[in-house]
Amino acid sequence: MNSFRRGLVTSCSIALGYFPAGATFGVLAVGSGFNPFEALSASMFIFAGASQFALLSTLSYGLLWSLLIPLLLNLRHVVYGVIMTRRVRIRYPLVTAFGLTDEVFVVAQEMNSERFLWGVQLGAYFSWVAGTAVGVFGGRFLFREGLLTSSMVFSLAGLFLVLLIPRIKGFGDGNFWSAIAGGIVALIFHLLGYTSWGIIAASFVGPLFAVYVENRRRETA
């Protein structure tokens, strides 16, 4: 099995979580005033779950905040990109960067080529867009109960935890300290009443702390 096909198979674990989360976004987007074309376009061209949900929640605050908050949330992908380039040669950065979501980044820890990463990204992308389409066109039928919609929103966070926990090797592992540092930062901001800003801060602190721990471990090895 070549690298691309292996990546596509690996993407199945992400696709299972992306489909219901994408459907939830489709429902909420239409309910927020988006027409079907706009909702689908958001998933096709933005393809960033947390940022898309943030876009919906900030619409009432004006265009500036609707652009600024998703932009700040997505800046963490710069850190992801730097980490990826240290592990494998990236020949097509614009193509590869587009599909580098949080969950793809976690799964890509085992990658050995850019083509493998493309396979993971393609499976995740089609699942997210397909889920959005189902939410846009069938949301009223599928999500008539508000409780179901809330549980579907949680599926994205639940998916990330499922992918993260098996990759924590122990107390000396960068992933472990990244999760701890990000969680502490998010908790502090939440207790101060700035939950949204805490998510943004944690998205920077977590990856940067992981890089620091891994560098320190290499220096002492």
TrEMBL record:
UniProt keyword Transport present: yes
Residues annotated as transmembrane: 45-69, 90-108, 120-139, 146-168, 180-213
Keyword check for Cell membrane: yes
Membrane topology per record: Multi-pass membrane protein
Cellular compartments annotated: Cell membrane
UniProt entry keywords in alphabetical sequence: Cell membrane, Membrane, Transmembrane, Transmembrane helix, Transport
Family: Belongs to the AzlC family.
Name this polypeptide is given: AzlC family ABC transporter permease
